UniProtKB/TrEMBL annotation:
It comes from the Eukaryota. GO terms for biological process: flavonol biosynthetic process. Pfam families: UDPGT. This is UDP-glycosyltransferase 89C1-like. One of its GO terms (molecular function) is UDP-glucosyltransferase activity. Keywords: Glycosyltransferase, Transferase. Belongs to the UDP-glycosyltransferase family. InterPro entries: UDP_glucos_trans. It comes from Gossypium stocksii.
Length: 457
């Protein structure tokens, strides 16, 4: 392994090490949490691999010198394509391989901790890395806090029915319950009951916090755009197009996150529904994965001639989209989505009606929560390989742009609740204060901690 790049050492107190999982739905909210912790006075070292270093740019711009990158080369793994360091390039079945590859950094991290005069006093790591980060913290005799980018209902379901999980996930979630804290990107008013059950039945301690929806970082006027990459339509043109829409809540936004890639048949059904409905729309189209499953080589193919036929009716954006900015625009009324947790939270904050197509992972639990329990979403179809009926989907698109739907009313009510939770004095704001206080307390007696770490090594 080549030489590790590190740009500094921590301050005298409140210094923690953050270990993210390299998928957009994991690392972006963890960076938002890191931003909040830095605002509350902590000093942070973030371990990344070279191709994920760009995710730290907003933090470095806002908080230097209190945030430092710790860059390790991405370890090789026989099941991973050469050069891939991020989940967005791979199907979800490759997630355990990414985790196992990163687990090879266990001993280099121990060596790095040993070499520091003032090492971090705690580790904050993604829950899917728990199979090795909890042991790493134990080896170093420092606390490990798990960041949970999934919704609480899904995590409660998984740990309550471990037989439902594949062995890799069963180990990760079991190990996470041995950590010294769990930080959920959710809020008490939405999932407080499940938070309490996890605290009482599984965590066995009081350090279970709901701190969401985590506000995104913003660096200058273009801050929300800097999180992405290449795109076929510049963000300012997207916003100009939305500004030209005269009717509020009349645009359907369609996007399935960074992990889901639709098949040719699914793309054709969505395209046909848009044409048949006549609604104004923005469609975010993900580029095909580098490694598709099941020999599927027909991903993300926009039907021939579709863009010409809908010219003026909508936008098809290939690559990154300024999703949160789109959802918050007055012209957008509904969001056709896989119901990933980050996307769902962004829609909640924007007060947008969700049209749910759950496909994998926690999507089904999120849809059950928001559609069945809260009533702020509409079920459209389900399953990774299902193909929606274009005529039914067209009708749903049209109905989703009408103002008087009960689900839209409930979505607006949920928006107010979420915004109250994250404002100063709200439940999530207070929880963030408690997380920062707990992490800071771990570094209060640094001299004694240093003796303990060195004796354990």
């Amino acid at each position: 392994m080549s030489e590790v790049k590190y740009s500094g050492t921590g301050a005298a107190g409140g210094h923690i090490c953050i270990i993210p999982f390299p998928a957009c739905g994991h690392i972006l909210p963890l960076m938002d949490l890191t931003h909040q912790l830095l605002l509350r006075g902590l000093t942070v070292t973030i371990m990344v691999t070279p191709k994920n270093l760009s995710y730290l740019n907003p933090l470095l711009a806002l908080h230097s010198p209190n945030v430092k990158p710790l860059v390790f080369p991405f370890p090789s793994h026989p099941s991973l394509p050469h050069g891939v360091e991020q989940m967005q390039d791979l199907p979800i079945s490759f997630l355990p391989h990414i985790v196992n590859a990163l687990g090879k950094l266990y001993h280099p991290l121990v060596q790095w901790f040993r070499a520091q005069q003032s090492p971090p006093a705690a580790i904050l790591s993604d829950i899917v890395l728990s199979s090795w980060t909890v042991n790493l913290s134990s080896h170093l005799n420092i606390p490990n806090i798990c960041f949970v980018p999934f919704n609480v209902a899904a995590v409660y379901f998984w740990i309550s029915t471990p037989s439902f999980l594949l062995p890799f996930y069963r180990e990760a979630f079991t190990m996470s319950m041995q950590s010294q804290g769990l930080v959920f990107n959710s809020f008490k008013e939405l999932e407080g009951t499940k938070l309490g059950l996890i605290k009482e039945k599984f965590a066995k301690h009081c350090r279970v916090w709901g701190v969401g929806p985590l506000p995104p970082m913003k660096v200058g006027d273009e801050g929300l755009y800097e999180r992405g990459g290449a795109t076929s339509i510049p963000p300012d043109q997207v916003i100009s197009w939305l500004d030209s829409c005269k009717v509020d809540k009349s645009v359907v936004y369609i996007g399935f996150g960074t992990q889901i890639t639709l098949t040719k048949h699914q793309m054709k059904a969505v395209a046909s529904a848009l044409e048949e409905s006549g609604v104004r729309f923005i469609w975010a189209v993900k580029e095909p994965m580098k490694r598709a499953e099941d020999g599927d080589d027909d991903q993300s193919l926009i039907p021939h001639g579709f863009e010409d036929r809908v010219k003026g009716q909508g936008l098809v954006i290939k690559g990154w989209v300024p999703q949160l900015t789109i959802l918050k625009h007055r012209a957008v009324g509904s969001y056709f989505t896989h119901c990933g947790w980050n996307s769902a939270l962004e829609a909640i904050v924007a007060g947008v009606l969700l049209l749910a197509w759950p496909m994998q992972a926690d999507h089904f639990q999120i849809t059950r929560l928001l559609a069945d329990e809260v009533g702020a979403a509409i079920r459209v179809c389900k399953g990774l390989r299902s193909v929606p009926d274009a005529t039914i989907l067209a009708r749903i698109f049209v109905e989703s742009t009408t103002v008087g739907q009960p689900q839209r009313v409930r979505a607006m009510e949920l928006q107010k609740t979420a915004l109250n939770a994250i404002k100063e004095g709200g439940s999530s704001y207070q929880a963030l204060d408690k997380v920062a206080k707990a992490l800071t307390s771990f570094g209060c007696n640094r001299t004694e901690m240093m003796k303990t770490i060195r004796s354990s090594l």
